[in-house]
Amino acid sequence: MNKPNFPIAIKISCTLAIILGVIGIPVELTRRWNQLTDLNYFLVWFDDVIACSFLLFGVWKIYRSANGHRFLTAAWGFASGMMYGSFSTQFFNRNLPDPSGISVDIVLAVKFFGFIVCIAGLLLSLLANLDRVSIEKEK
Prior knowledge:
Distance between the termini: 25 Å
Number of helices: 4
Shape: elongated
Structural class: mainly alpha
Number of strands: 0
Radius of gyration: 17 Å
Strand content: under 5%
Largest sheet: none
């Protein structure tokens, strides 16, 4: 994050996106290791790969184009929706075991934390976009 003209909100949003994007894929693939070859579960784990990849793409676009902020904001919106669905589905089915064998309560806590990170990233990205729009209007 060497660009000095980036507001602090977008720097934090990018950092969160990189952390979640890099950690999210291996965590989900490890969690569902036994289901990776079963096509019935393909979309259950691949949606997380898409969301994490989209976050990393959003960060990459910020450094490549003037419209990169829009991509990161869209990625955070997508990831927030995915985390909401993942958390609520797990919450309402908490009587079922998790495919990883880990306690459902631990998985729920991690998913809730991930959901909060996604909402924070989305809000920071939106805040940075508002700052950017107001600066452009002043010019």
